[in-house]
Amino acid sequence: MRDLPGTSEGLCFGTPAFYIKKKLLARMWENGEVIVVYNSERELWMKKDPETFFITDHYRNYPSMLINLERVQPDDLKELLVTAWLGKASKTLLKEYQNR
Question: Please, are residues 23 and 11 in contact by the beta-carbon 8 Å criterion?
Answer without folding.
Answer: no
